[in-house]
Amino acid sequence: MLRSRNLGQIDLLKLVKDQEGWVIEMAEVKSSQLGLDFMQNQQKLRLLGSGKFIAGLLGTRLKFTVLVG
Fold first, then answer.
1. Number of domains the chain contains
2. Four-residue CA torsion sign, 65, 28, 22, 58
3. pTM: predicted TM-score of the whole model, two decimal places
4. For 4-44, how does the pLDDT look when each residue is reduced to its tens digit (9 = 90+)?
5. Torsion (CA) 45, 47, 48, 50 in degrees, nearest 10
6. Position 53 pLDDT exceeds 80
7. d(Cα 61, Cα 58) in Å, to the nearest integer?
8. 37: Cβ–Cβ under 8 A, 6 or more apart, which residues?
9. 33 CB-near residues (< 8 Å, 6+ apart)
10. What is the DSSP letter of 24?
11. pLDDT-derived band of residue 55, with 50, 70 and 90 as boundaries?
């Protein structure tokens, strides 16, 4: 469904509740700093689009992070 909307593929996603209510925590996983350095702006925009789309469906907030391992 995300691909058909030209949105990015999500690596990690979880739904948690904090003091303000429900929030989606979304993470992109990169194997190295080099991978992070070469992550293109288009990829970031597609990933954020995916997160916003899912958060909109669920009526939640979105937190996005990139994990380097």
1. 1
2. positive
3. 0.82
4. 999 989 999 999 999 999 999 999 998 888 877 777 888 88
5. 120
6. yes
7. 9
8. none
9. 68
10. E
11. very high
How many CA atoms are closer than 13 Å to the CA of 58, on its beta-carbon side?
A: 18
Q: What is the pLDDT of residue 38?
A: 73
Q: Which domain holds residue 42?
A: 3-68
Q: Where are the alpha helices (DSSP H) in the chain?
A: 33-37, 41-58
Give the CATH number, domain containing residue 7: 3.30.70
Determine the Cα–Cα distance for residues 47 and 51; give it in Å rounded to an integer.
6
Read off the tokens for 69: 């391992």
The owner of tokens 């970031």 is 44
For residue 49, what pLDDT is reported?
95
Tell me the three state secondary structure of residue 46.
Answer: helix
CA neighbor of 10 nearest in space, from 56, 68, 53, 57: 53
